[in-house]
């Protein structure tokens, strides 16, 4: 299986030109459509369906309008019905690459040339504004899955295998946590030890298994030079020494970490409640103490000011009576404290 994918962006790309190009010369019959393998469409139907589905996409500069992809079988492989084989491979490709997508294809059979299928894939999902773009890493996984299917379903197509699966078994496939560069280095024998993401994943898994609460989890990670951080809704792992950040989602542990945090939440809530009670009690004690000091200072100032006023105005009986009342209350307060 040989696969080539080409994107066509605004402006200048034309679905009509591509459909006319695919329908030239050695094209076999009418277009077939996905979802639902086995449905047949005329050229005008394909153009209309693609343009209609494009109306759901968001208006964006240099947006990908559609993809032109080619899936081929090596000319060295001999099979009785290459068109049927290609139809089955294309259906599997859509299942892996774009299960929610809108796409059409047509088979080309030419003497002396590899049998191949031309695929037209909409740039957005069927009746949706979500784009069909996937990363190179994910595309590599799609190719691997497609060749796995080819190995199981059509083992006679030996020459159509590429570097994705050639000479390897299912258990030898590159793990999800390993990047394409690491995969290439591993195959060339240049990669020693565990890939970084696999190592970080194992450390985080061990920390989650050992930790009873959030403080214990942070302490275990801290001893290994790691810290948890949050950016928006995403949780990540920070290497303190290098400053490199890794999202927990890319490590494949987002769901596991969330379950672990949910499990620790009741313990943390009790701890926070106790901390809150202690802090509130201390704050009240501090406020009461500060309030008593302020009130005593105000009373002292008021009594002293009133005494000075009565000394300067001895004829003011009202002020003298108020002064006597304040002194009486102060004596009663002192007796209660004793």
Roughly what percent helix? 40-55%
Would you list the SSEs in sequence order as H and E? Answer: EHEEHEHEEHHHHEEEHH
What oligomeric state do these chains adopt? single chain
Average pLDDT reading = 78
- The whole-angstrom Rg is 38 Å
CATH class of the domain at 2-133: Alpha Beta
Runs with pLDDT <50, length 5+? Answer: 166-177
Largest sheet: 6 strands, antiparallel
Query: Which structural class best describes the helix and strand composition?
Result: alpha+beta
| CATH architecture descriptor name of the domain at 2-133 | 2-Layer Sandwich
Strand content: 15-25%
Task: Find the CATH topology of the domain at 2-133.
Answer: BirA Bifunctional Protein, domain 2
Global geometry: elongated
The number of distinct β-strands equals: 9
N-C termini distance: 97 Å
Note the total helix count. Answer: 9
Strand order in the sheet with the most strands? 1-4-6-5-2-3
């Amino acid at each position: 299986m040989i696969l080539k994918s080409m994107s066509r962006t605004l402006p200048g790309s034309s679905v009509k030109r591509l459909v006319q190009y695919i329908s030239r010369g050695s094209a076999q019959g009418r277009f077939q459509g996905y979802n639902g393998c086995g449905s047949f469409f005329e050229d005008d139907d394909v153009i209309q369906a693609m343009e209609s589905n494009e109306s759901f996409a968001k208006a964006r500069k240099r947006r990908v309008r559609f993809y032109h992809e080619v899936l081929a079988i090596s000319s060295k492989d001999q099979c009785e019905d290459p068109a049927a084989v290609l139809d089955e491979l294309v259906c599997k490709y859509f299942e892996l690459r774009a299960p929610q997508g809108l796409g059409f294809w047509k088979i080309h059979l030419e003497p002396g040339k590899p049998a191949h299928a031309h695929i037209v894939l909409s740039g957005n999902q069927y009746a949706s504004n979500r784009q069909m773009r996937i990363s190179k890493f994910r595309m590599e996984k799609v190719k691997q899955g497609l060749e796995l299917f080819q190995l199981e379903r059509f083992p006679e197509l030996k020459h159509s295998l590429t570097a994705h699966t050639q000479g390897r078994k299912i258990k030898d496939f590159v793990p999800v946590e390993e990047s394409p560069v690491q995969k290439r280095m591993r195959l060339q024998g240049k990669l020693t030890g565990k890939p970084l993401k696999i190592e970080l994943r194992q450390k985080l898994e061990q920390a989650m298994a050992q930790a009873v609460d959030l403080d214990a989890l942070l302490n275990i990670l801290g001893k290994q030079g790691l810290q948890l951080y949050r950016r928006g809704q995403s949780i990540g792992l920070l290497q303190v020494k290098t400053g490199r950040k890794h999202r927990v989602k890319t490590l494949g542990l987002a769901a596991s970490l969330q379950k672990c945090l949910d499990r620790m939440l009741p313990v943390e809530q009790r701890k926070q409640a106790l901390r809150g009670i202690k802090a509130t009690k201390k704050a009240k004690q501090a406020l009461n103490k500060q309030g008593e000091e302020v009130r005593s200072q105000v009373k002292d100032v008021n009594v002293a000011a009133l005494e000075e006023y009565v000394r300067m105005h001895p004829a003011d009986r009202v002020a003298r009576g108020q002064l006597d009342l304040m002194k009486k209350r102060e004596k009663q307060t002192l007796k209660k404290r004793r």
